[in-house]
């Protein structure tokens, strides 16, 4: 299966243990991967209906231009609204997917009941950080990097960090380095914001900015975790997401920043 072929809709495969109705969970991928990067979560959440949309410019939508975080959020909201008739969804995003998810909460709060976002680069970045981000698209396209990352992340056959065109990666990088938190004062969704304890310091420092902007949110660190810990530490990631979606409780292994 190629990155373009990875499905966006995954029907539930088993009933819920509590006998309740099937719920829907939506996973938004990061900027250096594609929707295939949630394949371990798709397996773990077989009692949910799982949606793993391709963000604009990625995977099966690789030919489409990236038009910014707000446009991507509207795109995700339309995708969800077309597939969920009633009720709200559980929204999960990592890195770029988390930034898009924040805009979904800002612009379409009626769609979301709970949300877990991790690895959010919300602080404006220094000149050195901006230069490093601009250099990443060149590295992401290299065969050696694709093979290394695919192996490290347990990627699907033929999958790698080649889900998007270089122009898309440059446009995404430009959005990311600007930083910023949208207006979320009126959001009623239960919101958990996480950073890996081994992520870059500016990502971890961004949790304080997020706490100021969204005081009702719960903020935590994932011990020992790097950026893509949904693939690096899937058992803990899945347990964190499930506990939040079903109880709105932070997993006890997470720690206060």
UniProtKB/TrEMBL annotation:
What is the superkingdom listed in this entry's lineage? Answer: Bacteria
Q: Which InterPro entries match?
A: AB_hydrolase_1, AB_hydrolase_fold, Meta-cleavage_hydrolase
Region span, Disordered:
1-22
Assigned keywords, A-Z: Hydrolase
Gene3D superfamilies per the record? alpha/beta hydrolase
Molecular function terms in GO for this entry?
hydrolase activity
Give the Basic and acidic residues compositional bias ranges: 7-17
| Recorded coiled-coil stretches | none
Provide the transmembrane region boundaries: none
Domain AB hydrolase-1: where?
25-235
- Could you tell me what this protein is called? Alpha/beta hydrolase
